[in-house]
Write a structure and sequence with these properties.
The chain is α+β, with helices and mostly antiparallel strands. The chain is about 35% helix and about 15% strand. α2 packs across α5 and α3 packs across α4. Bound molecules: FE2/S2 (inorganic) cluster (FES) (2 copies).
């Protein structure tokens, strides 16, 4: 018997321990938001959170989640209480066919949970393994950037603009942006 938390509820399944978590969630628990794309950990369509980390569930045996906390797209938000990223996805009209989007949202939400003020590079690194055949990448990036805390964003810009201080007259003699 495998026991774990799924979207904040304790669950248990009596199943072949080699069964990929994706199929346990989709077929056993009937939560169909996470998609099967490549089945080889290459496209990100099946991404869920394992103890807060974005993981590919098409290659993750359910035995590996014994005692773990799993969140699928169904646990990210609800229609009445969307996750801020889901609101941003709607505002930016991100999805086209939509097939990749639950995986995209799970990767983006794992990033922001750890780093609420990611740089462009941080976003690109975190989202790198999530493939979108429809090419929604620029809208995904815009949506993620729209939920970055404005104060934190301003502070990072300010830090990157720190000038060189001239001690002879007390004036800043140059400024340079790093990003
Ligand atoms: S279906 Fe899991 S990474 Fe493609
Ligand atoms: S929206 Fe179609 S694959 Fe990403």
């Amino acid at each position: 018997m495998i026991n774990f938390q799924l979207n904040n509820s304790p669950v248990q399944v009596d199943i072949d321990p080699d069964t990929p978590l994706l199929w346990v969630v989709r077929d056993h628990f009937k939560l169909k938001g996470s998609k099967f794309g490549c089945g080889m950990g290459l496209c990100g369509a099946c991404t869920m959170h394992l103890n807060g980390e974005a993981v590919r569930t098409c290659t993750l045996p359910v035995s590996a989640v014994q005692g773990a906390v799993i969140t699928s797209i169904e646990g990210l938000g609800t229609p009445d209480n969307l996750h801020p990223l889901q609101e941003a996805w709607v505002e930016h009209s991100v999805p086209q066919c939509g097939y990749c989007q639950s995986g995209q949202l799970m990767s983006a939400s794992a990033l922001l949970a750890k780093n609420p003020n990611p740089s462009d590079d941080d976003i690109e690194t975190a989202m790198n393994g999530n493939i979108c055949r429809c090419g929604t990448y620029s809208k995904i990036k815009s949506a993620i950037k729209s939920v970055i805390k404005p104060d934190a964003e301003a502070m990072r810009t300010q830090v990157s603009m720190v000038g060189t201080f001239d001690p002879t007259d007390g004036n800043a003699i140059s400024t340079e942006a790093n990003s």
